[in-house]
Amino acid sequence: MSHAALITGASRGIGRGVAVALAGAGFDVALTARSADALGETATAAREAGAATAVALPADAGDMEAMRSVAHDAARALGRAPDVLVHCAGIARNGPSAQLSLGDFEESQRVNVTAAFVLAQELAPAMVEGGWGRIVTIGSLYSRFGVAQTAAYTSTKHAVLGLTRVLAAEYVRKGITANCIVPGFVDTEMVRDEVAKAATARGTSEEEILTKFLRIQPIGRMVTTQELGALVAFLCSDAAAPITGQAINIDGGAHQA
């Protein structure tokens, strides 16, 4: 039986890597993010990788009614409700806690956590009915510890890990797994943007900042989106059925836990 996945944040970076990996593993994919043009590029890449169906559903992950609509639109476009949810959408609104706006803090919660909650609410009933499902969220090294000036981002990454573990506990006897991937530094536009911002703020080069970032990643390089996508594809396979409720590091040896 073939499976179908709904992937958020699929226009670039980790989301695109996940979409292509799942397509290559034989999944049909529904893709959502804000950029229609970039989603179209991901859909093309997914079809080239092997997806029989790859549909683009532009929407803002910070809009919960839009997320509910995406879940229903994906089911119509795919011909069945997705039995895989991969929540890759994420934003980073960083700065000193005393200066961080409530709007930025709340937007981070909506995109990084609440969207995953709403989509799981919408998709889990069909997974239960079918006796099979996979939920994968994307956490961060910041799911495990706090870093100064990242109150919005770090709190959401702790929260999405907690949410994932709750979903795992609730559905453990329903054939549904839920796991949170905890990446180190992944070679994405978001990470490159953060490197550029840090370089500007400190008056140094991007190369120097990246070198400092990678000191905590013993592999000595960034993780690729293809490598992370392959991990997601495994977690969405039948072979991964006993793996649930886990925070799974993919960080080049940065943390051994």
Q: Largest beta sheet: what is the strand line-up?
A: 3-2-1-4-5-6-7
Radius of gyration, in angstroms, nearest whole number: 17 Å
What would CATH call the class of the largest domain?
A: Alpha Beta
Mean pLDDT: 95
According to CATH, the homologous superfamily of the largest domain is: NAD(P)-binding Rossmann-like Domain
Summing up helix and strand content along with how strands pair, one would put the structural category as alpha/beta
Please report the number of helical segments.
Answer: 8
What can be said about the biggest beta sheet? 7 strands, parallel
Strand content: 5-15%
- Strand tally is 7
Q: What is the ordering of alpha helices and beta strands?
A: EHEHEHEHEHEHHHE
Distance between the termini: 35 Å
CATH topology name of the largest domain, in short, is Rossmann fold
**Which regions have little confidence, pLDDT < 50, spanning 5+ residues?**
none
The CATH architecture of the largest domain can be named as 3-Layer(aba) Sandwich
Task: Give helix % range.
Answer: 40-55%
Please tell me the total number of domains.
2
Tertiary shape: globular
GO molecular function: oxidoreductase activity
Protein name: SDR family oxidoreductase
InterPro entries: NAD(P)-bd_dom_sf, Sc_DH/Rdtase_CS, SDR, SDR_fam
Family: Belongs to the short-chain dehydrogenases/reductases (SDR) family.
